[in-house]
Amino acid sequence: MNSSIVISQSDGRPMYLQIMEQIREKVAVGEWAPGEEIPSIRMMAVAIRVSVITVKRAYLELEREGVIVTQQGKGSFVATDPGLAPRLFDREFNEHIEQAVRIGTLLGLSSQEMALRLRDTASQISENQVRDEDLAKETL
Amino acid sequence: MTDLAVQFAGVTKKYPHFALTDIDLELSTGGIMGFVGANGAGKSTTIRILMGLVHQDCGTVDVLGHAMPMQQAVAKRDVGFVSEDMRLYGPLTLAWHMNFVRSIYPGWDQRYAEDLLRRFDLKVEQKIKGLSHGQRVKAALLLALARRPRLLVLDEPTTGLDPVARREVLSELMAVLADEERTIFFSSQNTLDVEQISDQITFIDRGRIIESANKESFLDRWRRMRLMLPPNAVLPRLPGIVEVGGSARLPVLTVSRFEPAMVAACQDAGVAVQAVDAMTLEEIFIVNVQNRREREVA
Amino acid sequence: MNTFIVTRLILKDWYLNRPLFVAALFTGLLTLGAVSAAKGTQIAVILGVIVLATILIGMGAVIMSSMVNERRQQTLPFVMSLPVSYLEYTTSKLAGSLLIFFVLWLALLSGMIATILVTPWFPHGLIPFIVIMAVEILVTTSLIAAVSVTTESQGWTIGVTQVGGLALNAVGFSIARMPSIGHTMSGPTIQWSSASIFILLAEFMLIALMIGIAFYVQSRKRDFV
Asked: Whole-model pTM?
């Protein structure tokens, strides 16, 4: 199992959060299957050149979220919950909404204004997608 | 219970123009401690005392269970030491040095040594005096690593190395820790490296330990809070404010004991919290040292 | 005392300094040859011996300096990172340098004695004097070694060497003037008087004392690197 997690030093977030996010993504897209064994904390630390204590923190938090399971003496595994992947994406979606709302509040937007902006952005993005697809078809 | 690979208790050493005072340090087996401090803060002296090369005036030092400096000969059987001011024998080759060290340490791993030769891009037949600084550092590291010591003590192992060499060295250091019975103690000016690979961080300034803590909780405690004060409001009284920067209306507080409750406290006082930023080890280091210097002058 | 590590360190020093040792031996033998070839009066012989002795001391100083070069060349941290105590390090330096010097010394002393025994114009009575002077050289060299190891200073080593050389001259002349020794020097037989035995014993004790003091001073050091 090749650990392809990459820690960015220019990413402002703490390393353990980066690790957690990338592990969640691996599980969400199925790269790490439910029940599959994942690198031990030490193996992961060595592979990505990050301190054991940071990896340990990431693993502990992930365990608390139910994403992975660590068995003393046996190793760490992806949780066997089948509904895990959609739940993870769902969780990420909620986190981003929370962040947007916090910033909107600082800007002084009301909840209606924020909802409106959300809808506008959603339609804008889907319009762009359709236009990009048309462009791609034309050039073929 | 993990035993301690390194333990300093109340260590003091006085020189005419400098003193190490009351040094307490603990490093558990299997961990890696990053030792940070300005030049002249006492890092090298501390490391020399750790290796038994300098005798402390008072206090106890235990390395792998052996009292230093009395039992240094025994302790050093399991220790690999590389310091920035260390030189190998110029007229002799790397091969000679490898054979020399191999003849002394039964734990020498020849396959690992050859592996390191390749990865560090070193030629055995080359004389030491013909090596560049970076190559010499890597050669000394190879000699220390290949005997698979239980404890690695490194004084500025990446100083003066180019980015590629630095990364190689860090990879090798981390690989050492794959074995949870092995421990690393290293000092470095490179706060990025220390921040990334250390389990524990120890700060030293002017001969005193300022902080010695678990890296994650340490980094968690330090925050820069960017506030917006309404016209007649007063800065909220928060514990552990180390520095106040920014302007009167837009102050930036550096706090060393951050709690989420502080944000609520600010908002209750009518002060808007624009952002709560984490700080890099470098920023914490600078604030810490500057703050102490200013307080000394005051 | 871990004799294994001490041996390894001595061998390391010998290997590192081998060109120097060869040069020292060569110079010594050359000087011996020159002195042996000179014929002449008793004074000339004594002067020749003192020249040989001074050169020998000079060689000794050079050997000592090279052996304690670790601090100057900054290789001391490397050596002290090995499983060795101060005591063992000091032993390796003193033993290593004195052993090499002893080989040189023995070669030259044997050469000198052989020359005296073989050449007709050298009276055999000279031999006790030669031996006393030779051991005196060992005393001086032990002093140089002790100073070298404890001070690790080129300056001090050179200073002591010069003092040692002068002292040797003084000792040489005063011993030659002692009746029990001086009178028998030009004689055809080897005669050991009680005075000469006593002097020899005193010299050996001095050597032991120098080395003992060197170890004591080293053991009191608190900053080794």
From this structure: 0.84
